[in-house]
Amino acid sequence: MKASNVASIQIDLPYGQDLIAVRVPSEKLVGVFLPRPLAPVSDPARALGKALAHPVSPPRLREMAAQARRAAIAIEDATRPVPNSLLLDAVMAELQAGGMTPQQVAVIVATGLHRPMNDQELARALGRWLGVVACENHDAKDAQRLVRLGVTSLGTEILLNRSFLEADLRITTGDVEYHQFCGYGGGAKCVYPGLAHAAAIRANHSRMDLPGTGPGRLDGNPVRSEIEEVGRMAEVRFNVSVAMDAEHRIVAVRAGDPQVSFREACRFIDELYAVEVPRRADLVLASPGGHPKDIDLYQSQKAIEAATQIVEPGRNVLVTARCEEGSGSELFETWMQEAYTADDIIRRIRESFVMGGHKAYQIAREVQRANVHLYSEIPPGRVRSWMMTPVQSMPDIDRLIARSRSIIVLPQATLVRAYLSTNDEETIP
Questions:
Q1: Which partner for 97 in 11, 13, 62, 315 could form a disulfide, CB atoms 3.0-4.6 Å apart?
Q2: Is residue 38 part of a domain?
């Protein structure tokens, strides 16, 4: 962000791998709400090695490896900007120090119901371990690759990835960030829903509106509680969690006990990304944060929700999201095309929860709160069919800004948890 004169301020909004520069009159600007500055680690590989050498609680991973026959490492998929190859280097160093060979290790991509990683993405994720260790994309619909684990206290039958459960040393890795209803992504979420079967994943997402759910909520969150329960059922023994800044640089690493290391990483996320907003605005300009957070609408919807939480009811939200892979869900598109109104979608999801349909439901809630404008690579007709207004040029953005009385900007809307000051009419969970 930079000021060119006293009348307006130039603000850069991430868009795919690029930036979009918008100009906002200074007298209209309520604020640009960004993550707090927290210095990234100077040597990520060294920081990871140190965290694994000094876990949050004993024993070290190498000591576990000395007693194990096979290890399985769950990693995040391509929708998360995780430095997987660095994490794998650190974990593999510990496993080998404990006497394990690469042939005793399997890496499983925790896709959930996302698409599998392609060859190029796998090459980046595995780095020098590509072709050295066994690797697979989890397939939530392949019954032959699933094993029944049990039933949770919420009544969900859990089947998990066979390769993960066949290992006697089970490890999770990934980044920690805010999640719309799980509280935070990361930790045991890599196992459930990441390595679960499709029916369990649908059950997990169907509880998104239960009391206690929401970004930044752990204690009393029934969805997160079930995730942790499945992590214990699966006997995950070690976790490596990283907290990252908006440039995808590691600012903190915590390793060891799955729950303790995850929660310690959550505290860093709060330090970075919980931001107080003094009041609502007539217009909220938001970006998911660029690639891969705006790879499709499925991911970009998180930024739409964040923006609608702090806009004046019935006013305007503009999200800049490239969405190079379109909607990210054929079922989402079907639901949007079959609905006449947002109420149709809301009623339908409450009658019968379906993955993909849940994303239509989330969009339906948001277009009831605000007029949602989308600047993207998606054809305008499709955007309109999804109950949003397509924005196709910078002059269109300028006109929207000119018509607005007050403006809030969230350049990293997927990362931050914007909450209203207590003197506003309500607070955001």
A1: 62
A2: no
Q: What CATH number does residue 113 fall under?
A: 3.40.50.11440
* 317 neighbors 370 (Cβ within 8 angstroms): yes
Q: Are residues 90 and 199 in the same domain?
A: yes
Per-residue pLDDT at 36 exceeds 90: no
From 255, 272, 289, give the residue that closes a domain: 272
Structure-block tokens of residue 179? 């999640």
User: What span, in angstroms and rounded, lies between the C-alpha atoms of 28 and 127?
Assistant: 47
**305 and 236 belong to one structural domain:** no
Q: 176, 325, 312: which is closest to 239 by C-alpha? A: 176
User: pTM for the complete prediction?
Assistant: 0.82
What does the chain come to in residues? 429
Pairwise CA distance, residues 326 & 317, whole Å: 20
Which amino acid is present at 143?
A
Give 236's DSSP letter: -
Q: Based on the fold, state whether residues 362 and 231 are members of the same structural domain.
A: no
CATH code for position 295: 3.90.226.30
Spatial separation of the C-alpha atoms in residues 190 and 199, rounded to whole Å? 16
> Counting beta carbons within 10 angstroms of the beta carbon of residue 151, is it exposed (0 to 12), middle (13 to 18) or buried (19 or more)?
exposed
Residue pLDDT, tens place only, 210-241: 999 999 999 999 999 999 999 999 999 999 99
Task: Please report, for residues 76, 206, 311, the alpha-carbon distance to residue 210 in angstroms, rounded to integers and kept in the order given.
Answer: 26, 9, 23
Q: Is residue 290 part of a domain?
A: yes
Is 236 inside any structural domain? yes
Q: What is the pLDDT of residue 1?
A: 54
3-state secondary structure at position 276: strand
In 54-147, which ranges are continuous DSSP H helix? Answer: 61-66, 84-97, 119-126
